[in-house]
């Protein structure tokens, strides 16, 4: 594991930190892909500190509006098209 996180080693450093013997192979696969895509996105758009803070604030405010009856992260997933994509993947129709 690298001592310091840098742009060049960020993906592998984080993957090494979260993947351990307690993780299932599938969880490890999902987290490795998520980390890779997320870090590549941040590098691609050259995310600024202010933009990152704005995004964190948005997610924090979204979380604070959630209740047992109202799950705003599902609405966010719907808005981003993720809910329908998961449904499409899990209910594929013959070509």
Task: Describe the protein's topology.
Blueprint: H1 10-18, H2 25-45, H3 49-64, H4 72-79, H5 82-90
Helix pairs in contact: 1-2
Describe the model.
It contains 5 helices and no strands. The model has no long low-confidence stretch (mean pLDDT 93). The longest helix is centred in the middle third of the chain and has 21 residues, at 25-45. It has 95 residues and is mainly α. The protein has helices at residues 10-18, 25-45, 49-64, 72-79, 82-90. It folds into 2 domains: 1-46; 48-95, no CATH class. The radius of gyration is 17 Å and the shape is extended. Helix 1 runs antiparallel to helix 2.
DSSP strand (E) fraction? under 5%
What kind of sheet is the major sheet? none
Which percent bin holds the helix content? 55-70%
> Element order, helices and strands?
HHHHH
Average pLDDT, rounded to a whole number, is 93
Into how many domains do the coordinates divide? 2
Shape: extended
The poorly predicted ranges are: none
Structural class: mainly alpha
Helical region count? 5
Quick recap of the structure?
This protein is mostly helical and about 100 residues long. The chain has helices at about 10-20, 25-45, 50-65, 70-80, 80-90.
Key features?
single chain; 95 residues; mainly alpha; 2 domains; extended
């Amino acid at each position: 594991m690298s001592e310091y996180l840098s742009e060049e080693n960020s993906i592998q450093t984080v993957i090494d930190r979260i993947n351990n013997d307690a993780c299932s192979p599938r969880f490890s696969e999902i987290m490795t892909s998520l980390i890779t895509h997320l870090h590549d996105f941040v590098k691609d758009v050259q995310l600024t500190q202010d933009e990152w803070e704005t995004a964190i604030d948005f997610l924090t405010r979204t979380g604070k509006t959630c209740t047992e009856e109202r799950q705003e992260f599902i609405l966010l997933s719907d808005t981003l098209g993720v809910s329908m994509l998961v449904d499409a993947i899990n209910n594929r129709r013959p070509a």
